[in-house]
Design a protein that fits this description.
The protein has 414 residues and is an alpha/beta fold. It has an 8-stranded parallel barrel with strand order 1-2-3-6-7-8-9-10, surrounded by 5 helices. Helix 6 runs parallel beside helix 8. The two termini are 14 Å apart. 51% of the residues are buried. The N terminus is likely disordered.
Length: 414
């Protein structure tokens, strides 16, 4: 049985998304207006709040270790865990489309003898927590390493199809972290969507949580298939810019995953960790999801192809700063169009633990009308057990999660 508390809704500032920004990318496309005119379908519903934590693939290496992290999240009165089960075109679960991650056994494709996703589902549900499968979308392989053959029948997609890799105008990948799948290659998109569909069909997850759902930079992907598709599209639309075209490719991937979710697990929630700055604040010259990485996260909410976004606003509350947590979050909330915004925040401030700052961000998210918060990441909380318990606090000094709360309903699903 779910119980609910009344919503806390405050007026959100609109300047973060409506004022003309100063782009940090030369020749960046002007963002189309995203009018928050969709009916606020959940405004009158009773709600709780999402209290989530990201658990990356680097945080666990055994069944017992993963279960212990989820136990700590439950003890901290969190109600959702976001467990990474796809990092770079591999699987931390039994996939029909991608090989077992080599982090689990030391060999790509080798069965580790346990299934992290199923373990996470069982442990989370045993505590009454939601389990969101944390799924990197376009990151495909570590940039510094050659793509290797996998043990067994299921091979890595880039091993079979190197032409699916995203490249810049030089014809190479120059990102220092990953090789990436090209959003503009229809076969690469189809593979990603099929992989997500297979996971959703076979695992009892409460949500699919997308990350790396973007390109590595504004000049990607100049692979021949994508360039040919752009040339054909521009023949029909002469004013079509490269940025607009690439955003459409990322959008199409999101829409395809959403359609797969509706088909096989319609009650699950589709969410995405997105760049913490949609467009730069007025007078600022910062990175941005929209033009720097072809990520139009607000358009997904407006189109109804995303249930919730989690802006990764990994900066402090600092009035007037170009990275002010409060102003950036207010802009996302103002443009949410009836869908959910869960405030993503870092556990640390400039590498140091300061729970007063964490609590202030949680308080601002509640006051601004966000539907919850997600903290990055369990590894930082595990550095000191007292960090987990700070969320609950003590009877004399209760923390922001002192009382248990359920996740909020989504009016278009529940």
């Amino acid at each position: 049985m779910r119980t609910w508390l009344p919503a806390l809704i405050a007026a959100a500032l609109t300047a973060a998304c409506s004022a003309p920004p100063v782009d940090d990318v030369p020749g960046a496309d002007a963002a189309p207006a995203v009018d928050a005119v969709a009916p606020d379908v959940d405004a009158a519903e009773p709600r709780g709040e999402v209290r989530g934590v990201w658990i990356t693939r680097f945080a666990y290496s055994s069944r017992a270790g993963l279960e212990a992290i989820i136990d700590r999240a439950a003890a901290a009165n969190m109600n959702a865990v976001f467990v990474q089960i796809r990092g770079d075109g591999d699987a931390f679960y039994r996939s029909n489309h991608e090989p077992w991650a080599r982090r689990l056994s030391g060999v790509l494709g080798r069965d580790p003898g346990w299934d992290p996703l199923q373990v996470a589902i069982d442990r989370a549900h045993g505590h009454g927590l939601e389990l969101h499968a944390y799924f990197n979308v376009f990151s495909a392989w570590p940039a510094s390493q050659p793509v290797v053959a996998a043990e067994g029948a299921v091979q890595h997609a880039l091993h079979l199809h190197p032409e699916w890799m995203a490249v810049d105008a030089t014809g190479t990948n120059r990102d220092s972290e990953y090789r990436w799948f090209s959003p503009g290659h229809p076969d690469a998109r189809a593979h990603i969507i099929a992989t997500a569909r297979d996971l959703l069909a076979r695992y009892d997850v409460d949500g699919l949580h997308l990350d790396r759902v973007r390109t590595p930079g504004p000049d990607y992907s100049r692979d021949p298939v994508t360039v040919a598709a752009y040339d054909a599209a521009r023949a029909a639309e002469p004013e079509l810019t490269w940025g607009d075209f690439m955003r459409r490719q990322v959008d199409a991937t999101v829409a395809g995953i959403h359609a797969a979710l509706l088909e096989v697990r319609p009650r699950a929630r589709l969410s995405a960790a997105v760049w913490g700055i949609y467009r730069p604040l007025p007078g600022c010259n910062t990175s941005q999801g929209y033009a720097s990485y072809h990520q139009d996260s607000l358009a997904w909410l407006a189109a109804g192809t995303m249930d919730a976004i989690v802006p990764m606003i990994y900066w402090p509350i600092e009035a007037g700063a170009c990275t002010d947590f409060a102003t950036l979050l207010d802009g996302f909330v103002a443009a949410r169009g009836g869908r959910h915004v869960w405030a993503g925040m870092h556990a640390l401030d400039d590498g140091a633990w300061d729970f007063a700052q964490v609590a202030a961000r949680v308080a601002h998210a509640r006051a601004a009308g966000a539907q919850g918060t997600v903290v990055f990441a369990s590894s930082y909380l595990d550095a000191d057990p007292a960090r987990w318990s700070a969320y609950v606090g003590t009877p004399e000094a209760p923390g922001p999660f002192a009382e248990p709360l359920p996740v909020p309903v989504m009016g278009w699903k529940d």
